Amino acid sequence: MVFVNSRAVAPEAVRPPTLEAVELDFDHDIELVLAFLNTYDVDEGVERLDDLDQWQQWCADRGLGVASDVESAREIRDSMRSAVSCDGLPPELTTAWPVQVRLQQGIPVLTGTDALGTVLVAAARLAHTGHWDRIKICPAEDCLWAFYDRSRNRSRTWCSMRVCGNREKARSWRERHTTSA
After folding, report:
1. Domain Zinc finger CGNR spans what residues (predicted)?
2. Residue closest to 19 by CA, chosen among 148, 105, 116
3. What is the sign of the dihedral through the CA atoms of 48, 49, 54 and 59?
4. SS3 43
5. Mean pLDDT, to the nearest integer, of 67-77?
6. Model pTM greater than 0.70?
7. Which run of H or E residues covers position 130?
8. Whole-angstrom Cα distance, residue 160 to residue 150?
9. Where are the beta strands (DSSP E) in 120-178?
10. For residues 165 and 157, what is the distance between their CA atoms, to the nearest angstrom?
11. At what angle do helices 52-61 and 70-84 cross, to 10 degrees?
């Protein structure tokens, strides 16, 4: 007890910041959600959620635990991709997935009960902290890669200006100059 002006005042407790106390890592969440959204690779024509074995291998590679129900994973992935895509409205998918609330150093923390739950918890953390709005889908028809917009004003359009952005700008330039000639 500390006395200030003859009044008893409790000393301020020194607590670690909440994010550090529960070890939340938004970069890890971003990487996980982007990897999940990119399980369909248009450029290579690879669908990693075609069968249960590929889904289980994808989850095992990331240490996510039990992977089941590949159909739900694909449906949720497609819905999430539509939600961050700039060219349309998300499908009318409404679903629930089991997650747990665990106390870590007395602080409530969401955790997944399986691999898909872990991905959804990471996505929920991004949505609740304002990071979700920075996840975008490259508009190039032969790419459609999910990426995180780290630009200050959130104006990035392409996954890569060197590849997709350059290709689109060159295409646009050719169209403008062939029609004017």
Report:
1. 134-177
2. 105
3. positive
4. coil
5. 92
6. yes
7. none
8. 12
9. 135-137, 146-148
10. 8
11. 70
Q: For the chain, first and last CA: distance in Å?
A: 85
- Is residue 33 within 8 A of residue 119, CB to CB? The reply is yes
- Evaluate whether 126 touches 135 at the Cβ level (below 8 Å): yes
Q: Does residue 166 carry a pLDDT above 90?
A: no
User: Model confidence over 2-39: pLDDT tens digits?
Assistant: 666 667 666 666 655 655 555 678 899 999 999 999 99
Distance CA 81, CA 41 (A): 12
Distance CA 69, CA 138 (A): 28
Mean pLDDT, residues 82-97 taken together: 77
What secondary structure does DSSP assign to 56-111, as a single string? HHHHHHTT------HHHHHHHHHHHHHHH-SSSPPP-------EEEEEETTEEEEE
pLDDT of residue 162: 76
- Amino acid at site 85: S
β-bridge partners, 110: 101
Give the residues across from 111 on adjacent strands.
100
Does pLDDT of 55 surpass 70? yes
Other beta carbons less than 10 A from residue 66's beta carbon: 14
